[in-house]
Specification:
10 strands, about 15% helix, two-stranded antiparallel sheet, rod-shaped, single chain, 6-stranded antiparallel beta sheet
Amino acid sequence: MELINDQGELFGHINVVDALVVLFVVTAIIAGITLAGVFEPTPEPTVRYATVDFGSQEPYIATLVDEGDAMSVGNRNLTVEDVHYAPRANGNAIVYARLKVPGRGGETGTEGQLFEYEEEPLRTGDSIGLDTAEYTLSGTVIELDSQGKQLNV
């Protein structure tokens, strides 16, 4: 049996041009799936602890922030693990809080996959909001660790 016979058929059954078209289509599908990342693994759920600087707050707001405060809005879940107040001369207080942040992904700052919160990378210097029934605050992440519920003050 010849590889290609006198009629241009591969193994005597399939037209060579048809075989090339099928091969091209299959290759294009495989390349498309690979480039689209369909086979990328979903990162495992992980928890990080973020130290957040909520800045200078009025005393009545600062005293509302307490350990155990939780925010749960859609897929946004944060829990206050520790709080520190730094009094200011004007009567306000700078509020620092250690937040438990659930998300997905690897270690922050490594060359691998970054830790994601709300499907976006969360890094030192990023803004994060805390919205409870009693108050709404927005602050800056100044530290992000895989462990340690207590503030390092």
